[in-house]
Design a protein that fits this description.
This protein is an alpha/beta fold. It has one domain: Rossmann fold (3-Layer(aba) Sandwich). The model has no long low-confidence stretch (mean pLDDT 95). Keywords: Membrane, Oxidoreductase, Transmembrane, Transmembrane helix. InterPro entries: KR_dom, NAD(P)-bd_dom_sf, Sc_DH/Rdtase_CS, SDR_fam.
């Protein structure tokens, strides 16, 4: 296999949840650049359309709330009809909750799990049968450092991202024999608009993050995008069930 073929996504159709902004859009941009058609999924129509316009031809938008579990199959059917069969699913949509663990209500805890875990499972089980029938597919999850080490004030998020790693392990063993690979990317601290807003007002937290990151800086959204391209590409055809930290060394640093 030639180099340009190994990392090409030509002929692939990638459905990316939470694809309108931030890391989701960065993954969409990288996959689109590698030759894939990309389908951006989210709740906000205007945001999605702006993202599609920035990407150009081969990009599509579908509004859907991942917590509409019963609607997952219908979304996949619409995408298949209007764009083509989904060959790569990126479970990226998520919500955040910053709150002390003892103050986090069961209802709040469940809401975070519903988005990150149950919503991802609903979409995965909706696309998997088609991938299995075709003998080809890649499913990616956006994980977190919170599944690798403890981070205070995000107990529901930590539980959700840890459960996501379990989904990756379980799905990868069930689907590997059908030509479908399942992997996870665990971003470190990435310089998105959201993270910039949070850290610009909290210099102590910013210093702590930089201090424990061996590379001494935050990553860029495109760092996650290109990792997603690799894991979805033929170059990673023998890679499944892994969680890949893209974190500047923070998960192994001191």
């Amino acid at each position: 296999m030639k180099f340009d073929e190994a990392f090409s996504l030509r002929g692939e159709i990638a459905l990316i949840t939470g694809g309108g902004t931030g890391i989701g859009l960065a993954m969409a941009r990288a996959m689109h650049g590698a030759g894939a058609k990309v389908v951006l999924v989210g709740r906000r129509e205007a945001e999605l359309q702006a993202a599609v316009a920035s990407l150009g031809g081969g990009a599509h938008a579908f509004t859907h709330d991942v917590t509409d579990f019963a609607g997952a199959a219908g979304l996949v059917e619409r995408v298949t009809r209007d764009v083509g069969p989904v060959t790569c699913l990126v479970n990226n949509a998520g919500i955040h909750l910053k709150k002390p663990a003892v103050d986090t209500t069961p209802e709040e805890f469940q809401a975070v799990l519903n988005t990150h875990v149950v919503g991802a499972h609903a979409l995965t089980r909706a696309v998997a049968p088609g991938m299995m029938a075709r003998g080809h597919g890649s499913i990616l999850f956006t994980g977190s450092m919170a599944s690798i080490f403890g981070i205070p004030l995000v107990i529901a998020y930590t539980a959700a991202k840890s459960a996501m790693v379990g989904l990756v392990k379980g799905y990868s063993t069930e689907l590997a024999g059908h030509g479908v690979r399942v992997n996870c990317i665990a971003p470190g601290w990435i310089a998105t608009e959201m993270s910039r807003r949070a850290l610009d007002g909290d210099p102590a937290r910013k210093a702590k993050i930089f201090g424990r990151t061996p590379m001494g800086d935050m990553g860029e959204p495109e760092d996650i995008g290109w990792a997603a391209v690799y894991l979805a590409s033929p170059a990673a055809k023998f890679v499944t069930g892994v969680t890949l930290p893209v974190d500047g060394g923070v998960s192994v640093g001191f």
